[in-house]
Amino acid sequence: MDIYRTEGRGRLYNDIVETVGDTPCVRLNRTGPDHVSMFVKVESFNPLSSVKDRLALNIIESAEREGLLKPGQTVVEATSGNTGIGLAMVCAAKGYPLVITMAESFSIERRRLMRFLGAKVVLTPKEERGIGMYNTAKKLAEDNGWFFARQFENAANADIHESTTAREILSDFEGAALDYWVTGYGTGGTVTGVARALRSERPECKIILSEPHNATLLGSGLPQERNEDDSPKGSHPAWEPHVIQGWTPDFIPKVLQEGIDSAFFDEVRPVDGMKGMAMAQHLAAKEGILTGVSGGSTLTTAVEVAETAPEGSVILVMLPDTGERYLSTPLFEAIPAEMSEEEAALFASTR
Fold it and tell me: Are 269 and 301 in contact (CB under 8 A)?
């Protein structure tokens, strides 16, 4: 049992935001073909259980350093949920009021979590897509003098992934092979920031980006129209509604554009979100790792890459969040709350 003993973290924390980052890379033992080694970076180890805690912290602290965010000023942001939850944590810890705009189609537990953390959540019509919630946040900021976080354009987004996520990966794989790194994209901050470091320090590592098979914005090759402030000018023509919450809004974010222009990924692969759900269920039942639809979809893409990867390849997969963000979505639709016949029979056997 000594292998399970730890000595703590060796420090005390001044507040919850100091615990952001330093998430583990974990080997998978029952997933993927036998001729490769697969690892997942489990971002649910962040304090509010998603990779977005990183960008939320850096957007706020960068704005503080630059004098763009004043004490007590309200923060506003458009988000599908995880960034809003991360911002709610940071704003609660630092004393900023927070208003979130979110399309009504995203999971109920996300809006309830943000409200539980003290944020106000303004729901926008699902017909207006991501552009609708973005424009609502922008208007609220302009009308009220609030700080607009602008995760889709803010350079602090990718910067935090270059300085933390990438450094953690490089440290964990120091002296070891790393042949593929696989991720999806929402804002594009993760792929852009991590790829800056991997291209420089591990150029042999192939970077694979995934997007929904029915919303192939990058795969289409069509550019995103933008306004003068780099905000999206309408929905991208290749976008359609998809089931992978947190992935691929109906526009190509400015943060991701750097990755496109700099050729920061070697391949873009489409993935069926329903297969991603099945993979998330497999990961929970066979590996004991809980992730959401986006994590399951990224892992589905990685397994496809693994099938044709050379013998002995090492593949690292980003898992952006926890499966608990999806309890009210189709991911858990087939999971009953009541006992099955087999479970009821087990109970009856004890009477």
Answer: yes
Active site residue 52: yes
Distance CA 210, CA 302 (A): 9
d(CA 223, CA 220): 9
The pLDDT of residue 246 is 87
What integer pLDDT is reported at residue 297 of this predicted model?
98
Q: How far is CA 159 from CA 56, 186, 189, 258, in A?
A: 12, 15, 8, 12
Per annotation, catalytic residue among 41, 44, 50, 52: 52
Q: Is 294 a catalytic residue?
A: yes
181, 204 Cβ separation under 8 angstroms: no
Q: Using CA atoms, how far apart are residues 136 and 310, in angstroms rounded to an integer?
A: 48
Q: Which domains does the chain have, with CATH numbers?
A: 2-49+164-332 (3.40.50.1100), 52-148 (3.40.50.1100)
Task: Please check whether residue 50 is in contact with residue 43, taking contact to mean a CB–CB distance below 8 angstroms.
Answer: yes
Q: What is the pLDDT of residue 3?
A: 67
Counting DSSP H helices and E strands in the chain, the numbers are: 11, 10
Helix axes 273-287, 293-308, angle to 10 degrees: 90
Return d(Cα 148, Cα 140) in angstroms, integer: 9
Q: What is the pLDDT of residue 290?
A: 98
What is the structure's pLDDT at 2?
61
pLDDT digits (tens, 9 = 90+) for 66-95: 999 999 999 999 998 899 999 999 999 999
Instruction: State the Cα–Cα distance between residues 199 and 207, nearest whole angstrom.
Output: 9
- Give every residue of the chain whose pLDDT is below 70, as ranges: 1-3
For strands 98-103 and 120-124, give the pairing: parallel
> Among 37, 80, 294, 297, which one carries the catalytic annotation?
294
Rg of the chain, C-alpha, whole Å = 20
Helix or strand holding residue 302 (H, E): helix 293-308
30 vs 216: CA distance, rounded Å? 30
Question: Alpha-carbon distance 298 to 276, whole Å?
Answer: 7
Count CA atoms within 13 Å of residue 346 on its CB side: 4
Scan for tokens 């996520």, then name that residue.
165
Separation CA 68–CA 61 (nearest Å): 10
